[in-house]
Amino acid sequence: MSAITIKLLAERLQLSTATISKALCDSHEISANTKQRVLALAKELNYVPNAYAGSLRGNKSKTIAVLIPEVADSFFSQALNGIEEVALAKGYHTLIYLTHEKIEREKAILNALAGGRVDGAIMSVTVETDSIDHIREFNRQLPVVFFDRVCEEIDAVKITTNDFECGYNATRHLIEAGCRKIVLLSVSNSLSIISERSKGFKKAITEYGLNEDDCKTIDCTEDPMHNCQLIKDMMQGNNRPDGILATVEKLTTEIYLVCQQLNINIPRQVKVVCFSNQSSAIILNPTLTTITQPAFEMGRAAASVLLKLLKNNTLILKEECAVIPSTLNIRNSTTGYVSEV
């Protein structure tokens, strides 16, 4: 059987090939009724578009890039699912690049992509991204949509969550649970999300009148062994905290491991809240109180707006930005008591 072509669809429906092409691309120029007729016949005849030919005609690759720091973090893996769901539904391919939290790798990736291999990019910047010239240069040529970790200085669409409120609410929850010496575990002063979470933390500390000398920020690194030692020194110190707020998911393991090694009971001796999307939070002992981000929804929103920009580059970027709220899920690491096993 010969391949089903746009020309054949046009003949069957007595429409022009241009109309068929625009209808398949969901163009605003084509009425909803005509689109429905075209899509119905295309489905009936199992029409498969020639993506390569289409990209040549439109000078488009039908491919988008996604730059993320890592995939081990459940937030990014869930966000990728949201991005791919939208991209696949619109006939786009997704190229996923891992920066491994290195700014030089981020620069190299964007430089390689600027030549037209992709139509645009969705990205979450690295912990080292303290200069943005490389992103600004890429954005002059192709559209960029930021999600989670954003660059405020660049005029682009940003999909974020309410990090300030989450930092505040998590700290307030620890205070209302009885904590008076709360430590914020940070990973980067330059990341927008960490900065906002830290501001929320400090607001709650001030608002509730806690001693700021007892409520400090400790800067962790990308090295798990180093972080374990930092947390161990903190928990063995003279002014041991009774509450910990971890700004990133990867610190969960180190906190629980150190407390286990030092025979420190969570939550009796220290209460713990983590920004985390990991499904294992409900099977940890004790179950972990988390700030759970809408990762899948943020991924969907980022992909949707990028594809929207690719169809209409006159959109007002600020009006396309979105803040999708996160959720405080209270579990036993802040409220319950567990038997020591």
TrEMBL record:
InterPro entries associated with the record: HTH_LacI, Lambda_DNA-bd_dom_sf, Peripla_BP/Lac1_sug-bd_dom, Peripla_BP_I
Keyword Transmembrane helix: no
UniProtKB keywords: DNA-binding, Transcription, Transcription regulation
Source organism superkingdom: Bacteria
Limits of the HTH lacI-type domain: 4-58
Pfam families in the cross-refs: LacI, Peripla_BP_1
Gene Ontology molecular function, alphabetical: DNA binding
Keyword Transcription regulation: yes
Name assigned to this protein: LacI family DNA-binding transcriptional regulator
